[in-house]
Design brief:
Shape: globular
Radius of gyration: 22 Å
Distance between the termini: 34 Å
Number of strands: 16
Strand order of the largest sheet: 3-4-2-1-5-6-7-8
Length: 425
């Protein structure tokens, strides 16, 4: 029997503390791989623990907890600290005799550590891009009147982030994206013709079941209004369409209470509270507590409780590489209002069939009208719920794992050929 392919997967998110789509991807992809015998996966993540632990058949390692200096520029300095911590951990593992056949880099903020592993062990690197920051720097997530005109004035931090994304795209032996539309984004932004593998994320419907008892407990815990819930799940960010959603609440009472499940992606509490959108949310909650509530970040168990009390899901995203939350809504039988943007569009629309109520990006009017329509039409909600559940059959984590392993094998094979050619010359 052949030995399994040994993989080191590097990611800044801990799959047991899921912050967004990348965390869910890591958790579920390697859960599927951990059940297989043809791969042996080590995960290197940033997390609260210090000692290795089993994660669904994979071994999870935590980056070294060394703090080498206090960050003065939070984003860049904290990334450099994280790189040093992870590289120290990798060096310790190699010193202990650990070896891998391939390193899988998840996102730009793991690329420097992944390159060290690749070069130190002369193994191939596979990269997965979960979100293109360089595209967001063009202001595509903002309303037209807020976008910067003329030549963008990039900061040193902006340039650093774009460089890291460039390394991820150009230095990976094989590149993976989660949607076909995002392939167009990458080719447009980075002017690359390199081969790209598109592998959809998946969903496990059996893991997403209604739990009305937990749902009612969570309603009491957060003292939510006694009215139907329209649920928003995700980071509180412009790319998620938070501004038009807040504007729609000001337009009138749809009958729903919009519940925001998510947190602002800020370096400090001061930055979070001084962001204009945070102030707008606080103001709107105070003005219309029956229309809007903000419950912050929710771990998996409580998140499922919120899904259980939701009558509709709202996804007014202006930029979305995939949109895994749409699959979670559908698995819970929650009808979805969504934009048809990028990867999200590949979930909610398939050919001529629509699996959600489709709205335009940046349209507070359409959000308001869609919510009001669904509030007054329970039959339409039921039809959307059934359509959404029907869509799930095309998204499977075991299939995603199998396709990813095929990419691993391809990268390893091509790397061996290159090595042989170098030796021959």
């Amino acid at each position: 029997m052949k030995r399994p392919i040994r993989i080191l997967a590097i990611c800044q998110e801990d799959p047991e503390w899921i912050l967004g789509g990348m965390g869910r991807h890591i958790a579920e992809l390697y859960r599927s791989m951990g059940a297989r015998e043809d791969v042996a996966v080590d995960l290197l993540v940033n997390g609260p623990d210090e000692y290795p632990k089993n994660f669904h058949g994979c071994t999870k390692y935590y980056s070294d907890k060394l703090v080498c200096w206090k960050p003065t520029v939070p984003n860049i300095s904290s990334i450099l600290i994280s790189d040093i911590q992870m590289i120290r951990t990798v060096c310790k593992l190699i010193a202990q005799g650990k070896r891998w056949d391939l390193v899988h880099c998840h996102e730009w903020n793991s690329v420097q550590t992944s390159r060290v592993v690749r070069d130190s062990l002369n193994i191939p690197m596979v990269g997965t891009m979960h979100l293109c920051i360089s595209k967001l720097m063009q202001g595509v997530d903002l309303p037209e009147h807020m976008r910067e005109k003329g030549t963008p004035n990039f900061s040193q931090e902006d340039i650093f982030l774009m460089q890291q994304e460039g390394h991820l795209i150009m230095d990976s032996n094989e590149l993976i994206l989660c949607s076909y539309s995002y392939e167009d984004v990458i080719r447009e932004v980075f002017l690359t013709k390199r081969p790209i593998n598109v592998i959809y994320n998946g969903i496990r419907p059996e893991d997403w079941k209604m739990d009305f008892i937990s749902g009612e407990s969570i309603r009491k815990k957060y003292n939510l209004p006694d009215r139907p819930i329209a649920l928003f799940v995700g980071r509180i960010a412009d790319m998620k369409g938070i501004r038009p959603l807040l504007e729609s609440i000001e337009m009138g009472d749809t009958g729903f209470c919009v519940v925001l499940c998510g947190e602002v992606n800020a370096n400090t509490e001061h930055d979070k509270e001084n962001w204009e959108v945070t102030k707008l949310i606080r103001k709107t909650v105070k003005k219309y507590p029956e229309r809007l509530q903000w419950v912050g970040f929710q771990k998996n168990k409580d998140l499922k409780a919120f899904y259980s009390i939701a009558q509709i899901g709202v996804m007014p995203s202006t930029h979305e590489p995939f949109g895994i939350v749409a699959l979670e809504f559908m698995a819970m039988g929650v009808p979805v209002i969504a934009t048809e943007i990028e990867g999200l569009g590949e979930i909610v629309v398939n050919g001529r069939e629509e699996y959600a109520m489709i709205i335009d990006t940046h349209s507070s009017v359409q959000i308001y009208e869609a919510m009001k329509y669904l509030f007054n039409n329970p039959q339409a909600r039921e039809e959307l719920s059934q359509l959404g559940y029907k869509r799930l059959k095309d998204f499977d984590w075991d299939v995603a794992a199998d396709k990813t392993i095929q990419v691993y094998k391809k990268a390893i094979h091509q790397h061996k050929i290159v090595n042989m050619e170098r030796k021959a010359s």
